[in-house]
Specification:
heterodimer, A: MetI-like fold, about 0% strand, globular, B: alpha/beta, 11-stranded mixed β-sheet, about 50% helix
């Protein structure tokens, strides 16, 4: 397709917007908001270094290998994250097995761990002197390097992919599978040719979110990476270790390139194919049962991963109640006493998290709807805007926010608003992927019917799409909330004395070697986050909305 | 109907921002106060000295002070309490790691929120001073202090010292290395013994300030050739190079490794938690200077100056020594408990200017000769 034609089509599409003033207003507002709160801060940061600083990027051996390592780790960790996420999602949604509650819980746990703190747990359990590796199995395993990092990143980031994939699998009705099966396809063929293609948008969306998270991960490589140089750690350490903003900004910009590439590849893979499963003619059947050996095989695998995660977090929980985590395991309540004095910070964490994730999921939903269901000529731009914040390392979004919003007309530094806004825009890609994956499955016919009967874009959005999107919307919301509560990188440059949040304290404690108090703080934060979710689940159920955890 | 529709979509978007604005609004009153006073005083400080007296007359009534600090949480809390009792001035603080702190001060330069930056190596203060983030201020109390702790450019005031040292896990050392005939290392050269292979960790000079100072330390100690030779030989026993100097401590404390190189005051903090570790200060070690500087255009400049003056007093030096185990720059303040007097610590002749100049080449050399050969 020639560029000229697409442009002409785009313009034609834009002209049609005249008949939909609301849609036009919404689009303009969204472009302005996202542009102002993500692109503007990024431009502020990127314009710090000179061109000559950028030229250095290819002159230094370390950074070239950092780029290579980052790409390698992103590919391998994303593959394993997506595979495990698919396994969990499949087992939870399609198999009739026990312990599903446990699996759901395990698939959320790693999201709520602030950086650094869990890494110590891994070292204590699986390090050279690890309780499991050396003590129990008598192995000499060196986890510092690619292999160890791969395992840790897989466990840390598969939940991001899981929640997106689950949202999609739950929406796939088994009718088609029965049809194929009844016509003589084997169970494997049904899976491969019917079920799997239907999962693809979800798998792709999940993989995208996992990949971006792996790419921008700096907490795990700091402790587990050994000598491995990776872009986000190098960028972070240029600030933290050297206070070299120029170099840090250059490295962060270098990170933007692969992040955007992930986005393009993802769009290419999902392609133009659409797999519609919500067609308006809904019949629900119990899913096709796989053979027993498959069922229990998958169950055991899921159980194995779950036990691994539980072990890691169990050790963390134990650390919260011991005198010197990793050395003196005698029990104490001193660490918890410390946390009790920090109630205000925990309240800030929850408050900012809720506001930010509510905002992010609403904005992302409108955005996803317009991109997926409306031909408005700027779909690609909107899609790009929605996913862009995910490609910006949190720490740079934070610095960018300080630089961009520290003077009139938007003087926000030191306020709670800047914390909420930064977390909000940082979470948009998470919510957007969830909603997009959900929307891709809703057939055009459903909405066409509404439109033909006289509904406007807005009414069909509210009355047709919204109810169908509840699941993805809520999973995006939950994910963002958990991410916000445990986010450190974005808020580190934004907090003020009265807007301090829990993760800031945790970082301070880790820096001063107070691992016990840090573990106690983390455990408290995790428990409160889950309590908040549980309460909202109960409240929502009364309203007739099911919130999957 | 059209109006209704517009209202409805607008509501969706307003809801998003209305909520966030509420969140912002509800907690703002306290923090917006310094912000507004800062924006008032910012234009008045730019015409330099003439306006500074005006600013001071206004802020002399203020009993607030905003401190951006790289000290430990516990330590700044103690200082906050002590200073309030002494002067009645209320300290508000933000605590971050040294580099993060500097980045924040620079990012806020257009509209500073802090009065003083306190703690962290003066190596971080130099580029900030050059970038125009600080007001020149040399405290009168620096007259009692060795000139090497005072910024020749007039921005920072050195008030404490940190030295590089070794953290040793005594339990594992006694169980595994002592039977092999090793004694606790006393010098940097002792580490070259191959029995330390894979149980020693340090940090990478490309990412860690302390890691670089360690390399410069060896070059100042042994000459350029000798220093590089030393680093190459040491590489044979290093298990891996952590990305931050402080990252070495916890793994040694929990017994993952036996010996690590880091800042002594940081090791001390972990030691206080009850881990079986010991601190060794090797002969001819390097040091960093902990700084304090006045932020340009801060809301309470007079209080900031008074605070820097106080940091340089004997009392403050003793307080900081007792809570943080750091050496004071004042000769009349004794060494931290359990550590040798600073005269007894055999310091290397550390040339800060030269260390700064050769950083790029040393790091590049390290990358090529050492890190490149690792996985």
């Amino acid at each position: 397709m020639a560029g000229g034609t697409t442009l002409r089509e785009s313009i034609k599409e834009m002209k049609r917007l005249k008949n939909e003033p609301l849609l036009l207003v919404a689009i303009v507002l969204i472009i302005l908001l996202v542009g102002y709160f993500t692109i503007w801060p990024v431009i502020k940061v990127i314009s710090v270094p000179q061109a000559s600083d950028y030229a250095q990027l290819f002159a230094k051996r370390r950074w070239i290998s950092a780029l290579k390592n980052s790409l390698f780790m992103t590919v391998v960790s994303t593959l394993s994250c997506t595979a495990i996420a698919f396994l969990f999602a499949y087992v939870v949604s399609r198999l009739n097995v026990p312990c599903k509650g446990l699996f759901r819980f395990v698939a959320l746990l790693p999201i709520v761990s602030p950086p650094f703190i869990v890494a110590l747990s891994y070292i204590l359990l699986f390090g050279i002197q690890g309780i499991i590796t050396k003590g129990l199995l008598g192995l000499h395993v060196d986890i510092y390097g690619k292999f160890g990092l791969w395992i840790v990143q897989t466990v840390t980031f598969f939940p991001y992919a899981y929640s997106v994939i689950l949202g999609v699998i739950q929406k796939i009705s088994p009718n088609l599978e029965y049809a194929a099966y009844n016509m003589g396809a084997t169970r494997w063929q049904v899976f491969r040719d019917v079920f799997w293609p239907l999962c693809r948008p979800g798998v792709a969306g999940g993989a995208l979110i996992a990949a971006v998270n792996v790419l921008c991960d700096f907490g795990n490589p700091m402790m587990i990476g050994g000598d491995l140089a990776l872009l986000p750690t190098e960028a972070y350490m240029q600030i933290s270790g050297w206070y070299d903003m120029n170099t840090a900004a250059v490295l962060a910009s270098a990170l933007l390139v692969p992040a955007l590439a992930i986005f393009v590849i993802n769009r290419f893979w999902v392609g133009k194919r659409s797999y519609v499963t919500i067609t308006g003619k809904e019949i629900s059947l119990t899913p096709l049962k796989p053979p027993a050996w498959v069922k229990w095989g998958l169950f055991s695998l899921t159980m194995l991963v779950s036990l691994f995660v539980l072990l890691v977090y169990g050790s963390l929980a134990l650390g919260a109640f011991t005198k010197a985590w990793g050395y003196d395991w005698s029990l104490t309540l001193n660490n918890m006493r410390y946390v009790l004095n920090k109630g205000g910070q925990i309240w800030n964490s929850i408050r900012f998290g809720l506001l930010a994730s509510l905002g992010a999921s609403l904005l992302a939903m409108v955005l996803a709807y317009i991109v997926q269901k409306k031909q408005v000529g700027v779909n690609r731009l909107l899609d790009f805007l929605a996913i862009l914040p995910g490609a910006i390392p949190g720490i740079f979004l934070g610095i960018g926010f300080v630089m961009a919003f520290n003077e009139p007309p938007m003087e926000l530094t030191g306020t709670a608003a800047i914390m909420v806004l930064a977390l909000l825009f940082w979470n948009i890609p998470t919510c957007y992927s969830a909603c997009t994956a959900g929307l891709q499955q809703i057939g055009a016919s459903v909405e066409d019917a509404a439109l033909n009967l006289g509904a406007s874009s807005f009414v069909s959005f509210r009355d047709v799409i919204l109810p169908l999107l509840k699941g993805p919307f809520m999973s995006g919301f939950v994910l963002s909330f958990l991410r916000s509560v445990t986010c450190l990188s974005v808020v580190i440059f934004l907090y003020a004395p009265n807007t301090i949040v829990g993760t800031i304290s945790i970082m301070g404690l880790v820096e001063t070697g107070q691992w016990g108090s840090a573990a106690a703080f983390t455990v408290t934060l995790i428990s409160i986050a889950f309590t908040v979710l549980k309460v909202s689940q109960v409240v929502l159920r009364r309203q007739g909305i099911r919130l999957e955890l | 109907m059209c109006i209704k529709r517009i209202l409805a979509i607008l509501m969706t978007i307003v809801l998003v921002f209305g909520l966030t604005a509420c969140g912002g609004g509800s907690t703002n009153p306290a923090s917006s106060a310094p912000a507004s006073s800062a924006s008032q005083s910012a234009p008045s400080t730019s015409p330099a000295s003439s306006a500074s007296s005006q600013a001071s007359s206004r802020s002399s009534k203020s009993n607030k002070l905003v401190v951006y600090t790289a000290l430990n949480e516990d330590d700044i809390v103690t200082i906050q309490k002590e200073y309030k009792e002494l002067t009645g001035i209320e300290i508000e603080y933000i605590r971050l790691g040294g580099g993060d702190l500097a980045a924040r001060v620079q990012a806020e330069m257009a509209n500073p929120k802090a009065d003083v930056m306190v703690g962290g190596s003066v190596d971080l203060y130099d580029p900030l001073g050059a970038a125009g983030a600080f007001e020149k201020y040399t405290s009168p109390n620096t007259k009692d202090i060795d000139p090497m702790f005072v910024d020749p450019n007039g921005y920072w005031n050195g008030w404490y010292m940190g030295v590089l040292g070794l953290v040793i896990n005594t339990e594992r050392f006694d169980k595994e290395l002592a039977p092999k005939g090793l004694e606790r290392p006393k010098t940097w050269d002792d580490l070259l013994d191959e029995r330390y292979k894979d149980v020693f960790v340090t940090s990478n000079p490309a990412t860690a300030g302390g890691g670089y100072i360690f390399c410069a330390n060896q070059i100042f100690r042994l000459g350029e050739e000798g220093g590089k030779e030393y680093l190459k030989n040491l590489d044979k026993v290093v298990h891996h190079y952590y990305k931050g100097a402080g990252d070495c401590i916890s793994p040694v404390a929990t017994g993952e490794f036996i010996v690590g190189m880091s800042w002594v005051h940081d090791i001390f903090k972990t030691q206080k938690q009850g881990y079986p570790i010991e601190i060794v200060i090797p002969e001819k070690t390097a040091f960093e200077i902990g700084g304090a500087a006045l932020v340009k255009g801060g809301p309470n400049p007079e209080n900031g100056k008074a605070f820097i003056d106080w940091l340089l007093t004997k009392e403050a030096g003793e307080l900081n020594r007792d809570i943080a185990n750091r050496y004071s720059v004042r000769k009349d303040v004794a060494a931290p408990q359990g550590l040798p007097a600073i005269e007894e610590v055999d310091l290397v002749d550390y040339d800060r200017a030269k260390a700064g100049d050769m950083k790029t080449t040393v790091v590049e050399w390290f990358e090529k000769e050492i890190t490149a050969n690792r996985g």
